[in-house]
Structure formats: structure tokens, C-alpha cells
From TrEMBL:
Role of this protein: Essential component of the TIM23 complex, a complex that mediates the translocation of transit peptide-containing proteins across the mitochondrial inner membrane.
Predominant localisation class: mitochondrion
One GO BP: protein import into mitochondrial matrix
Keywords: Membrane, Mitochondrion, Mitochondrion inner membrane, Protein transport, Translocation, Transmembrane, Transmembrane helix, Transport
Membrane topology: Multi-pass membrane protein
Name of the featured protein: Mitochondrial import inner membrane translocase subunit TIM23
Organism: Daedalea quercina L-15889
Length: 209
């Protein structure tokens, strides 16, 4: 900008007509990207992304959440990633199934229970009481059985180095006997036989499907 040309002139007109230059000699800075440039396709919008210049230099974190258990015999119809999957999903499934089964039992019991006075409110109250009593009992019992069974079954599998029907039946027998151990020898043997039969049947079905 020439200082002598601004003498005796209006400062506004001087600033309006003045031209500036950078120290490196360029007449003006690079023009900024406008919305018209992006819409007309003259500018690649992907260059605006903060990771655009990384290209193939980005390292990825490889997760093995989908890796199933490599224990021999564990490849059944229901995939499992190990004892934690069996423990969590098995216990949750049995608990919810027990709640549903106990709820149906309580509904039937409450609907058939004789009342001193035939009243809709009393009948609804009887049904709700039966559902909450039977549902929680069956659900809690099934959840505890599944928790103990899956813990023992996983321990047996890793000790033997394989997963098969015999290990499941042994875990079921120990679970049933432990569940009824305080009731005497005969109830404990009956519970062991019952739970072992169910465990063997479940293991066979998983392998056959």
C-alpha cells in the first residue's frame, strides 16, 4: 500500500481501494471452500473429515467376542463362548421359564380356588396371590438349579477336556443331590435321577438338532 496516495483522501475510500499482499509475495490467500463448491462437485467433501489424511495408517482393535469355545464336543446347536455364556444365559433362561411356568400354575390354582363369597375382586386377588407365590418359587428354584448345574458342568468339562452327554448327566446328578440333600437320602437320590435325566436329554437334543 502506497502511503502518499492516501493523503487528502477519505479514509473509507482509501481502505476500500487498497490492496494487501502477504510476506511470501502471494497476492491473496487460498479461497475458502463454500457450500456451492461442495454442491457443484468441485470439492471432495470427504477431505473435510478429521481422519481423511490417515488413509491406511489406522490400526484396528481386533475383538474376539464372536469366538466360540474350542473345547471338544462343545459345537452344538446352541453356540457358546465358554462357561460364562452357559452360566449367564442358562441361569437367566431357566429363571424366566420358571417364572412363566409358575405363573401359569398360580393362575390355574387361583382361578379354581373356592371362595366364601363369589366376588370378582376377591377372585382377582386370589389369582394374583397364587401367581406371585408359585411364580417366584418355581423361578427361584429353577434359577438356582441352573446356576449350580452350569458351574458343575463347566468344571467337569474342563477337568475332562471335553463336553459330552456323560458329563452333563453327572453334573445333573450332583446338582439334584445337592438341592435335596437336606431332605434325606431318598429325596436326594430321586432329585439326582430326575435332574440327571433332564440334563442328558437336553444334551442329546442339542447335539441332534
Amino acid at each position: 500500500m502506497d502511503p502518499s496516495s492516501s493523503s487528502g483522501q477519505d479514509p473509507t475510500s482509501v481502505l476500500r481501494n487498497a490492496s494487501f499482499s502477504h510476506a511470501n509475495g502471494s497476492a491473496q490467500a487460498d479461497s475458502p471452500v463454500t457450500a456451492a463448491d461442495v454442491l457443484l462437485g468441485s470439492y471432495d467433501p470427504t477431505k473435510l473429515h478429521p481422519l481423511a489424511a490417515i488413509e491406511d495408517k489406522l490400526d484396528y482393535l481386533l475383538l474376539e467376542d464372536d469366538k466360540t469355545s474350542d473345547l471338544p464336543g462343545s459345537g452344538t446347536a446352541i453356540p457358546s463362548r465358554g462357561w460364562s455364556d452357559d452360566l449367564c444365559y442358562g441361569t437367566g433362561t431357566m429363571y424366566l421359564s420358571g417364572l412363566a411356568l409358575g405363573g401359569v400354575w398360580g393362575l390355574r390354582e387361583g382361578a379354581r380356588r373356592p371362595l366364601a363369597v363369589s366376588n370378582a375382586r376377591l377372585r382377582i386377588n386370589s389369582i394374583l396371590n397364587s401367581v406371585t407365590r408359585r411364580g417366584t418359587f418355581i423361578g427361584n428354584s429353577a434359577g438356582v438349579l441352573a446356576l449350580v448345574y452350569n458351574t458343575i458342568n463347566s468344571t467337569i468339562d474342563y477337568a475332562r477336556g471335553e463336553h459330552d452327554t456323560l458329563g452333563s448327566m453327572a453334573a445333573g446328578a450332583l446338582t439334584g443331590a445337592l438341592y435335596k440333600c437336606t431332605a434325606g437320602v431318598r429325596p436326594a437320590l430321586a432329585a439326582a435321577t430326575l435332574v440327571s435325566s433332564f440334563a442328558g436329554l437336553w444334551s442329546y437334543v442339542k447335539r441332534s438338532v
